[in-house]
Specification:
Family (chains A, B): Belongs to the DinB family.
Number of domains of chain A: 1
Keywords (chains A, B): Metal-binding
Protein name (chains A, B): DinB family protein
Shape of chain A: globular
Pfam family, one (chains A, B): DinB
CATH topology of chain A: Four Helix Bundle (Hemerythrin (Met), subunit A)
Order of helices and strands of chain A: EHHHHEEH
Radius of gyration of chain A: 16 Å
Helix content of chain A: 55-70%
Oligomer: homodimer
InterPro entries (chains A, B): DinB, DinB/YfiT-like
CATH architecture of chain A: Up-down Bundle
CATH class of chain A: Mainly Alpha
Chain lengths: 158, 158
């Protein structure tokens, strides 16, 4: 599929990392107690949304690179904001390293992500980012409901 | 920038249209009154978030194609769910037609979007989608708070 790239692999990664930075700053804004307890309309607290994101990004990318189809588990033994932030920060360099191992020509190969989602790799990776934006947007509402100003959506680096 | 595309122009458009379809179904779920009146934490009601999206997608793409830098206006004279849905549906074929007019090789050109956001075209278009996902995620929280089940996030076509 030789063509003029509308978006290069490096730009895609930079886009993702910008979102990860914004999500990290959203997580930082939550008070400890509300991070684990506050929710609206029966939804999960933001800590659980973050654990979902953690259980998708690095493990999903690792499964993609290693072509394994291990299922995901959103239940992580992370019980404080500090632990969530530490895992977030530990995963970022792994994500960069794993992502860089996927050759351009593999982005259209199908991978059976988590043994459940058999789609082209580019499509699964877009889903990771979409899902992060979606849940972070929900975190913004939680913060507003708590009277806390969220980070600026358009600001993608510290 | 000849390379193996990780994502083609057609795939990018399909991705966007899938999101538009999900956002439309989210809009449909709102009761008329709550669409214009309900909000959480001082945020805008979902009707205003939809008007923001309407004032970005088609006008922003038109500005990009015509290389004009007319400012946006989020204030649209749309006062019912039916009017919002009608505008949404009217814009979709225009978006397809405008998007298809941008040659692959132009995606890395800078355009001063709305006279304010001078970035490569691919970056502005990614922002349109990100912003839609972000605000739709907020709409999901509004729906949950109203006791209404949102559409499935992963379902992108009717």
């Amino acid at each position: 599929m030789e063509t003029t790239a509308i978006l290069t692999k490096e730009e895609f990664l930079k886009h993702w990392l910008g979102h990860r930075d914004l999500t990290r700053r959203t997580l930082e804004k939550f008070p400890e107690k509300e991070l684990f307890e506050f929710s609206i309309g029966g939804m999960r607290p933001f800590s659980e949304l973050i654990m979902e994101l953690l259980s998708i990004a690095e493990p999903g990318l690792r499964g993609t690179v290693e072509r394994n189809d291990k299922p995901y588990s959103h239940k992580l033994a992370l019980n404080s904001k500090a632990e969530l932030l530490a895992r977030w920060d530990a995963d970022t360099p792994k994500i960069i390293e794993l992502f860089n191992q996927i050759p351009e020509e593999d982005f259209h190969l199908e991978h059976n992500l988590f043994g459940e989602y058999k789609y082209p790799i580019y499509s699964n990776l877009l889903y990771f980012i979409d899902n992060e934006i979606h849940h972070r947007g929900q975190g913004f509402v939680y913060l507003r409901a708590l009277g806390i100003e969220p980070p600026f959506f358009w600001e993608r680096t510290k």
